[in-house]
Sequence to fold (782 residues):
Amino acid sequence: MNKRLFGIAALFKTPDEIIRAAKKTAEAGYQKYDVHSPYPVHGIDRAMKLKPSKLGFITLVFGLTGSALALLLMYWTMSVDYPMIIGGKPFFALPAFIPVTFEVTVLLATLATVIGMITFFFRFPENDHPLHDTEYMKKVSRDHFGVVIEASDKHFDESKVREFLNSLHPISLEEIYYSEKETYPVLEPKFVTLLILVALVTSGVTYFSLNKLLYMQPFTWMMEQPKLNPQQPSTLFADGFGMRTPVQGTVARGFLPYPYMGQNNPTEVLQNPFLPTKENLKLGEAKYLTFCSPCHGNFGDGDSRLRGQFPNPPSLHSSRAREFSDGMIYHIITNGQNIMPSYASQITREERWAIVNYIRVLQRAKNAKSSDLQVVNKETGNNASN
Amino acid sequence: MHQTDFNYQRKDLPAGFSKFGFAFLIIGLILAVAAFFVDQSRAAFNYLVIYMMIVSIALGSLFLIALEYVAGADWSTPFRRIPEFFAGLLPVLFILVIPLLFLNHDLFHWAHEEAVKQDKILEGKAPYLNLSFFVIRTLVFIAIWVLFYFLLTRNSRKQDTTKDQTLTTKNIRFSAAFIPLFAITITFTAVDWLMSLEPHWFSTIFGVYYFSGTVIAALAAVTLIVVVLKEKGYFNPWITDDHLYSFGALLFAFVNFWAYIAFSQFMLIWYADLPEETFWYLTRWEGSWVIFSLLLIVIHFVVPYAMLLSQPAKMDPKRLKFISIWLLFAHLFDLFWLIMPNMQPLKKGYVFSWIDLVFPILGIGVVLTIFNFIAKKENLIPVGDPKLKRGINFHL
Fold:
C-alpha cells in the first residue's frame, strides 16, 4: 500500500522564528497550513492572518440561555409553583436571584465554549489525525515550535515547499504521512475499560465522601456545636426548657402592645383610626371571609359552616352587637370572648380595624333604612323598593 | 511591526488643551464663586463631588503607574507619561482641599458639636470622627500621595536623559511600598469624605467601591487622552491596535468589577434588611432619587458593558473615545449619587439647580490646565525606559 503524504513539517527553536515563519508562509499564499507551539505565542494570530474566532458567539448564545433558564427556573419555582416567603422578601426577589443567574450564565457559557471548541474546532472525536504520534508532535508539545504545510493546499508542490521551508532555516524537516490503518474505533476495549474504571472510582469516592467522610472527625465539628436546636432540653435553665420566652415587655418591631389583653369588659377601648374607604372595606371583606365567616357566616348571621362541630356564635345583627363601639369589636377580635379565641397573631392591627369597618357595613345592610334605599336607587338607577 | 530605530521628536500638545483648559477654568471659577454666594451648602456638596472626581483621576493614575512597575508590565510603558501627567494633580489637592476643610460645617453632620452631644452613636464615633483628626488624616494622606508622585515621576523623568536602568528597579521598590499604602489611604479617604457624610451608616466594602470607580475614572481619562493624541499623530506608530484593545479590555474588566462590588454591597444590605443599614439606600430610593439610582445601573454598567462586549469594539478608537468620556461621566454621576442625597434639603428627592452644572466645568478646567502645564515641559514618551521597546512591540 502506498503511503499518502499529509504534509511537510518544519521545526523551530524560538517563538520569534515561528512568528516570522508563520508570516512568510501566509505571505507565500499557502492556505492549508498550521502552526504548533507548546504555549500561546503573542502575535501569532496576526502573523497567520487569522480571522477573529467565531467561538465567542457560542459563548454569547449559551451565556444568554443560561441567564434566561436560571431566571425562568427561579421564577417558576419561587413565584408560581410553590411560592414561599423567605426572609420577608417578595416572591420574585430579583436581587437574591442575581447571584444564581450569574453563576448559571458563567457555567453554561464556559461549558458550551469548551464543548463547542472540542466538537466544532477540534472535530471530536477525530483520533486518526496524521500528526498524532509523530516525532514532530512530540517536540512541538514540549519545547519546539513548528509549521506544517498540508499536501491538500492548492499551491502544494513537494520540492517547492521543501525549498520554501528550508529558506526559513528550520532545525529539521519532517514528512508526515497518512496512517495506513483504515479506521480507529473510538470504543476500544482498553479505552472502555478505562472509562468504566474512572466511573467506578469517581462514584466510589463521591459515595465515600458524602456518606462516610463527612460524618468523621474533624468534618463533623461543624455539626457538633455547643448550641441547642429547637425543642431540645437544656441543662442550664432550671425548668429544663431549651426554648425561652422573650424577656417580659419585649415588643416586636412594627407591633404595638395591646394594653387590654385578658380583660372582659375594658372600661375604655381604642378608637378606630381607619376610615371605611373602598380599599379598607375590600381588605376587611377579604379578612372577614377568611377568618370570621367559618363561624359567624358570610353575612354575620351566626350560621356557621361547621355543621354543629363547634357551637354557633350569636348573630352580629343583634341590637347588642350593633351597639358595640368599634373599639369593643376590635377588642373582641384581639382578645377573644367566651369560646372565641384571640386572633391577634393571625390578623394584623390594620386588618382587624378593616374587619370592624366591614362588620359595620354588614350590620347596616341587614338593617337598612328607607333613606339608604333611595341612595342605592339613585346610584344604580334601579327601582329596588319592592 | 518591529521598531528597531526609535526617533522621538518632541511636539507641543494641541493648542486646544491650553485654550479649552484655561477657558473652562476661568468660566468655572467665576460660576463657582457665584454659586457659593447663592447657596453655600449646595455649592459645598457640589464642590466635594468634583474634588472627589479629581482625587479619583489623580490617585487612580498614580495607582496605574505603580501597577505597571510592580506587575512588570511593558505594554503600558509607551503612554505611561499620560497617567504621570494626571497624577500631577495630586500636589494641587493641597490647594483644592482647603475650601472643603473650611466648609466642614455645611458638609458633615458629625462636625456639629451640639448634634454629636445628643447622639450616642455619634458620640461613640467621635474619637475617629472629629475635626482635628479628620484634617490631620486628610493632609497626611495627600502628603503620602504627593511624596510617591514625586519619587516615581522624578526617576521616570531622570531616565529620559540618563537612560539609567537602575532607576526602573528603584521605582519598582517605591511602587511596591506605595500599593499597600494606597489601599489604606484610599479606603480611609472614601470613609472620611463619602461615607461620613451619613455618619450613622457603615459599609465595610465602601473603600473597595470607591476604588473600583477610581480605577475606571483614571483608566478612562488616560484612554481618552491616548486615543485623542494618537488621532492627532502624537503616538504614531508606537501605540497600536493591541494597545487599544488592552485599554478596552481593562475598562471592560473594571466596569464589571464596579458592578460586582456595587451589587455585593447592595445585596447584603437588602438581604439582611437591618434598618441601620438600609436607610442609606432608602434615601436614594426617595422621591426622584429613584430615577438616579436606576440610571446609575444603566449608565455605569449596562451601557458600557454592552458597548465594550465584542472584541472589535475594544480596539475601535472612536468607540473607545466615546466610552471613556461616557465612563468619566458615569463616575461623576456615581459620586453625585453618593454625595448629593446627604444634603438635608435634598433628602426627600432631587431638585434641580444650576449649581449642579457649574462645578463639572471647573473640574474640566482644573484637570486640563494642570495636565497641559505639566505635559508641555515633558517628553510624551519615556524615551529612556528599558521596557519601552518591548512596549512598542507589544502583541496580544
About this structure: Residues 15-341+356-388 of chain B form one domain. The two ends of chain B are 13 Å apart (CA to CA). The mean pLDDT of chain B is 93. Residues 111 and 130 of chain B are 7 Å apart (CA to CA).
